[in-house]
């Protein structure tokens, strides 16, 4: 018996997803499966996907498909955080790290998943509380300076032990998934998503110590805004979700295995080499 009875869709807000949706609907019709989507997303496309609210789609879907890029995949993962539902990412445009296939591979991949011919790559999330609201990120949580308002002065305390104070443009707390995003641009290490770790990276640090920290997933890390700091934006997977002022603090904890990403063949290292254009030194060839 096939695995997929109901497919949930999450769409990129701007990219053209009509071809991908039509492919999914044709495949589902041949299998007697149902396709669900969020009303505000499938409503802008002429298709027969059933519009339901987010809670119903999360509850009913056997497979969730994110159509877009890494941003759409991150949104899909946050939507399903804590649930075992597998998530398939489909590229609509630029190559990403999280999306697994292109549109022309979609029908074949759905059949493979339906026949249980796939693997799962668990992805860790991180969590914090901002202004009384719980926030979940699969890439990173960053304290970012406000232009014209001074540097980000932040003390970093892992597992209750004060370690370092940074003066920087931003202090980034990232997952292994996020090691190829903002953290990477700030000089952080590339970390396999199979490693459940918390990275702390300062962007453009104005200090003699500018190294990244790699912490185990069972250690929380507290960031405190120093008296010398300006007002800082709290970015959660790239979206500003609040602000902190001197004296405020934020504690980040890991959530291992918070989402399950479908893999049908590619490896993290293949994706990283293509996306980051990793070639190495010319002298090594």
Describe this structure in words.
One of its GO terms (biological process) is NAD+ metabolic process. One of its GO terms (molecular function) is NAD+ kinase activity. The protein is of the alpha/beta class and 285 residues long. 20% of the residues lie in helices and 38% in strands. The strands form two sheets. Strands 1, 2, 3, 4, 5, 6, 7, 8, 10, 11, 15 and 18 form a twelve-stranded mixed sheet that branches. It has a six-stranded antiparallel sheet with strand order 14-13-12-9-16-17. Strand 16 (232-236) and strand 17 (239-244) form a beta hairpin. Helix 1 runs parallel beside helix 5. The longest helix has 14 residues, at 18-31.
Query: What level of helicity do the residues show?
Result: 10-25%
CATH class call of the largest domain: Alpha Beta
Order of helices and strands: EHEHEHEHEEHEEEEEEHEEEEEEH
| Span between termini | 50 Å
Please, how many helices?
7
Average of the residue pLDDT scores: 93
CATH architecture tag of the largest domain: 3-Layer(aba) Sandwich
Number of DSSP strand runs: 18
* Computed structural class: alpha/beta
Low-confidence segments, ≥5 residues, pLDDT <50? none
Can you summarize this structure?
With 285 residues, the chain is of the alpha/beta class.
What is this structure's SSE topology?
Blueprint: E1 6-11, H1 18-31, E2 34-37, H2 39-42, E3 50-51, H3 54-60, E4 63-68, H4 70-79, E5 86-91, E6 101-102, H5 106-114, E7 119-130, E8 133-137, E9 140-145, E10 152-158, E11 164-168, E12 170-174, H6 182-185, E13 197-203, E14 213-216, E15 221-225, E16 232-236, E17 239-244, E18 249-263, H7 268-276
Parallel strand pairs: 1-2, 1-4, 2-3, 4-5, 5-6, 5-18
Antiparallel strand pairs: 7-8, 7-18, 9-12, 9-16, 10-11, 10-15, 12-13, 13-14, 15-18, 16-17
Helix pairs in contact: 1-5
Function: Involved in the regulation of the intracellular balance of NAD and NADP, and is a key enzyme in the biosynthesis of NADP. Catalyzes specifically the phosphorylation on 2'-hydroxyl of the adenosine moiety of NAD to yield NADP.
GO molecular function: ATP binding; metal ion binding; NAD binding; NAD+ kinase activity
Pfam family, one: NAD_kinase_C
